[in-house]
Design brief:
- The chain has helices spanning 9-17, 24-38, 47-53.
- It has one domain (9-53).
- The protein has three helices and no strands.
- It is mostly helical and 58 residues long.
- Helix 1 (9-17) packs antiparallel against helix 2.
- This is Biotin--protein ligase.
- GO terms for molecular function: ligase activity.
- It comes from Candidatus Infernicultor aquiphilus.
- Keywords: Ligase.
């Protein structure tokens, strides 16, 4: 489980990542970009945690 603020941004992030290339470096930059654009806060969670949950290893 991830806690994000604003609360509705997880679905938006999922939508942004859907169909993206499943490469760790690429997705990491997309997640970081989303965090910056949407002013997302996720206490104790970073982009690496999302990649682990998505089982992206390379």
């Amino acid at each position: 489980d991830f806690t994000l603020y604003p609360k509705d941004c997880l679905e938006e992030l999922e939508g942004k990542l859907k169909g993206e290339i499943r490469k760790k470096k690429w997705l990491n930059s997309k997640i970081d970009e989303f965090y910056d654009q949407e002013k997302v806060q996720s206490p104790g969670v970073n982009s690496e945690d999302f990649l682990k949950a998505m089982k992206v290893e390379e």
